[in-house]
Amino acid sequence: MALECQPEAAPDQPTYLELTYEKGDIVAIDGQPMSPATVLETLNKIGGDNGIGRLDIVENRFVGMKSRGCYETPGGTIMLKAHRAIESLTLDREAAHLKDELMPRYAKVIYNGFWWSEERKMLQEMIDYSQRHVNGDVRVKLYKGSVSVVGRRSPDSLFDESIATFEDDAGSYDQKDAEGFIKLNALRMRIAASKGRKF
């Protein structure tokens, strides 16, 4: 699928979309339920109209060579940006970090043609487990080749404004609690400094 236009020739007015997620998958666009195939088809069309998703990369092929690839992935570009946004609300910090470590391995397994392998199935189980609470809506703005997240909400959000303020948090967070944490985390650097090492 070729992009409808160069980013510079895209409409002068931005396009806004609301993507609805259930267990990490987009199930509706602007409230209209869709199958996964229709989601991708729709985002490819709308993204292409807005000049989204043109990539020029040099890849390391499985057989050992480097290869230049020019791709057009309007739908994939929108989906990745929005998915990261809903995960930022719903995934626990360590679960998010672990998933970030797994994704390059998962991509490599698929890229190298091992879809039916045991390792891909094992990784899939972990990824699916991580997506149990990735539910909600993400609003994106498409404008001349860029995708911006302009809103997100989730019934499974881990964000709590009363805690995140660091001010009137009803006692849920005490700044003094950080003293021991900072001291312990700095121990290796204090030891190195005592041995004359400079950072």
CATH first level of the largest domain: Alpha Beta
Beta-strand level of the residues, as a percent range? 15-25%
What would you call the quaternary organization? single chain
The secondary-structure class comes to alpha+beta
| Number of helices, where a helix is a run of at least 4 consecutive DSSP H or I residues | 7
Largest sheet: 5 strands, antiparallel
Question: Could you give the distance between the termini?
Answer: 51 Å
Number of domains: 3
- Compute the average pLDDT: 91
Helix proportion: 40-55%
CATH topology of the largest domain: Argininosuccinate synthetase, chain A, domain 2
Give the uncertain stretches in residue-range form: none
Structure commentary:
The chain is an alpha+beta fold. The protein has 3 domains: 1-91 and 135-156, Alpha-Beta Complex (Argininosuccinate synthetase, chain A, domain 2); 92-132, no CATH class; 160-194, no CATH class. 42% of the residues lie in helices and 23% in strands. The chain contains 7 helices and 7 strands; from the N terminus they run βββαββαααββααα. It has helices at residues 36-49, 74-90, 93-111, 118-130, 161-164, 178-185, 187-194, and strands at residues 15-22, 25-29, 32-33, 54-60, 66-72, 136-143, 146-153. The strands form 2 sheets. Strands 3-2-1-6-7 form a 5-stranded antiparallel β-sheet, covered by helices on one side. The protein has a two-stranded antiparallel ribbon with strand order 4-5. α1 (36-49) packs across α2 (74-90) and α3 (93-111) runs antiparallel to α4 (118-130). The protein starts with 14 loop residues before the first strand and ends in a 5-residue tail after the last helix. The mean pLDDT is 91.
